[in-house]
Amino acid sequence: MAKVMVTGGAGFIGANFVHFWRRTQQSDEIVVLDALTYAGNAANLAGLDGVDLIHGDICDTALVDKLIADYGIDTIVHFAAESHVDRSITGPDAFVTTNVVGTHSLLKAAKNAWLDQGTGRPHRFHHVSTDEVYGSLGPDDAAFHEQTPYAPNSPYSASKAGSDHLVRAYHHTYGLEVTTSNCSNNYGPYQFPEKLIPLFTLNALAGRKMPVYGDGMNVRDWLHVEDHCVGIGLVLQHGRVGETYNIGGGQELRNEQVVEAICHGVDAAFAADPTLGSRYPDAPAAQGRSTMELKTYVEDRKGHDRRYAIDERKIRSELGYVPARDFPQGFAETLDWYLAHEPWWRPLVARASLAV
Questions:
Q1: Is residue 273 part of a domain?
Q2: What amino acid positions are annotated as catalytic residues?
């Protein structure tokens, strides 16, 4: 039985991991540490038994020290991060504070509890990172692998790169037992409606424009969050200490393709369920029109990386990871989830000043 602390466990990926871990590792004790900032939501953990939610900041090393000691924590799964690239461009300070200083705070507390005090207990610090630390690929470049040199291009990715290096350093310098995973673009339930898929899905329901950056040809590898959680679980249970594993969905798509999938998915949902028209009367699909008419092009984001792609052969060959969903299946599940959980997303849309 492990005693697990999940940082950022009330956020999008963290909450999905808590649900996954509670379902698959029922004997483990789980403590969630989350600052409950705009993207953190205690409602994401509603209905889960045996999960303690602590409202606190990972930068508060004394608090982290106390939680590790009080709960006997032997595993930390570190999701807590500022992660929205647009926000990092307009306000980079918060990204450096949370992603770099916060990660260092956790590492110090873990080292103090597991190494300096000599408990002798097996332990693991798993750090969740992003493919964005590798920079941008050309159309014919090989996909990112674990030895790809870091070349971050935004304040967000630079702060995540800094945190990755700190985790590596605490392993090589002090012997802290760590693993790191770098993932591609996640989507799925509980995603805060500022990211592309939930934002455009909810805009489609409201009849609001879908603002596509630049020419819409930027390419991302899309990973359903449940498949990501499965990958993290494999790394925690079977990954080699000190190693990094890339986790991808194997679904490399242009942004335009993703937007088209959202539009077609919404249109099909309205055609299959006439009640959606009365629930969302401003949606073009409610009036027999195509959601594609909402697509518009806007000025490209500063420093917008052109392409990301993940080479996941290492985690496949070493740990047997295989994503269970292709994008059409994963998006269909995601759309169904948002249509069925309006009481969950409605307050968040209001908080984000997105009238739906």
A1: no
A2: 131-132, 156
Check which CATH number belongs to the domain holding 147 and give it: 3.40.50.720
Count: domains in the chain: 1
Phi and psi angles of residue 108, each rounded to the nearest 5 degrees, phi first: -65, -45
Are 32 and 52 within 8 A, CB to CB?
yes
d(CA 34, CA 39): 10
Write 321-325 long-range contacts (CB < 8 A, 24+).
Answer: 321/230, 321/231, 321/234, 321/247, 323/223, 323/224, 323/227, 323/230, 323/231, 323/248, 323/249, 323/250, 324/224, 324/226, 324/227, 324/230, 325/224, 325/226, 325/227, 325/249
3-state secondary structure of 334: helix
Instruction: Name which of 306, 302, 282, 304 is nearest 294 in CA terms.
Output: 282
**Is residue 336, in this structure, part of any structural domain at all?**
no
CA distance 130 to 4: 22
**pLDDT in 10s for each residue of the chain, 356 residues:** 899 999 999 999 999 999 999 999 999 999 999 999 988 999 999 999 999 999 999 999 999 999 999 999 999 999 999 988 888 999 999 999 999 999 999 999 999 999 998 666 789 999 999 999 999 999 999 999 999 999 999 999 999 999 999 999 999 999 999 999 999 999 999 999 989 999 999 999 999 999 999 999 999 999 999 999 999 999 999 999 999 999 999 999 999 999 999 999 999 999 999 999 999 999 999 999 999 999 999 998 888 889 999 999 999 999 999 999 999 999 999 999 999 999 999 998 876 554 33
Domain that holds residue 160: 3-192+224-250+305-326
Burial class of 323 by CB neighbour count within 10 A (0 to 12, 13 to 18, 19+): buried
